[in-house]
Amino acid sequence: MAGSKYLYNSNLAKGTGLINETLTLFEFYESGESKQEFLLRCTSQNVLNKSTEHRTKDIINLVFFDRYWKGSKNVIPDLKTLRENGLSLEALKSLFFIYTARANHVLYDFTLEIREIAQSKKISKEIAMGFLLKSFSDGKAPAWSDSIITRVSSYLISCLKEFDVIDKEGYIKRTFPDSKVCNYLLHELHFKGYSDEKVVHDNSWKLIGLDFNELIKEIERISFKGTIIFQYSGEILKIGWSYKTMEEFVENEY
C-alpha cells in the first residue's frame, strides 16, 4: 500500500466493486450504531459469509467504511433509504461507483482519462498499465513492482466492468444516468457546501458520463418537477434549493 505522501494506493486489491457485499451490509446496518458496533455485529454473525474474520474486517474497514463512512460523514442511511424505496440496482450502482472512485484516486483519475477516449477504442489492461507507469513520473504513486502494476491494472478494468462503465469486451458504455441519480448527486454536492457553480462543474458528473451541456439539460428537467429552481443564462447560474438537509431531501424525493 502506498504511503500517505502518494495520491494512489492499491486498496482496490481488497475489493473491486463488491456490489453484492455492499448491498448486504446496507441491509444489515442499523441506524445510529457506531463503526465499532457495526463491525462487531458483522464479524460475530459472519454476515458476509467469508472464510475468515480477517477477510470480513478487511472488506468492512478498507472498502466499505472507506467508501461510504469516511470520518464523521456516513452516507449509508441515505443510500439504504434509496434502496428500500425502490431505486433500481442500475441507478444505485452509479452512486456506488461515484463513492468508490472518490475513495480510490487511481480509479477516479483513470476513469476521467478514459472518458476522453473515443468510444470505438477498447479499454484494455495495457492502457491501464500505461496510465499507472505515467503516474510514477507524476509522483502520484510509488514505483510499484511489475506484479503490483499488473494486479492494479487488472483491478481497474474489473472495477469498471462491475460498475458498467465499460462492457465485457472493454468498450465504454455510453448510457445516460438515471434522473434520480442526477438529482441525488446535485443535492449531495450542495449539502457538502459547494457553490452552485462548483456543483455543476464537479468531476463526479464526468465519472458517470455526463458532459456540461447534458447536465444543464438534466437539471432543467429536474427543476420542472419543482424540486429546485434553476436559472441559467450562459453567464449566470443559480439554483434555488427547497430542502434544508440531505436527509429531508431523501425522505421526500425517494
Element order: H for helix, E for strand = HHHEEHHHHHHHHHEEH
Structural class label: mainly alpha
CATH class category of the largest domain: Mainly Alpha
- CATH homologous superfamily name of the largest domain? uncharacterized protein from magnetospirillum magneticum domain
Give a count of the beta strands, DSSP E runs of length 2 or more.
4
Broad shape = globular
Mean pLDDT: 92
Which fold name corresponds to the CATH topology of the largest domain?
fold of a uncharacterized protein from magnetospirillum magneticum
Strand content: 5-15%
Low-pLDDT stretches? none
Helix percent band: 55-70%
Distance between the termini: 39 Å
Note the main sheet: 2 strands, antiparallel
Would you kindly provide a brief summary of this structure?
The chain has 254 residues and is mostly helical. Helix content is 56%, strand content 6%. It has 2 domains: 1-173, uncharacterized protein from magnetospirillum magneticum domain (fold of a uncharacterized protein from magnetospirillum magneticum); 179-253, Arc Repressor Mutant, subunit A.
Looking at this protein, list some descriptive labels.
254 residues, mainly alpha, fold of a uncharacterized protein from magnetospirillum magneticum, Arc Repressor Mutant, subunit A, 13 helices
SSE topology sketch:
Elements: H1 19-28, H2 35-44, H3 53-68, E1 69-70, E2 73-74, H4 76-84, H5 89-103, H6 105-114, H7 125-137, H8 146-162, H9 179-191, H10 196-200, H11 204-207, H12 212-224, E3 228-232, E4 237-241, H13 246-253
Antiparallel strand pairs: 1-2, 3-4
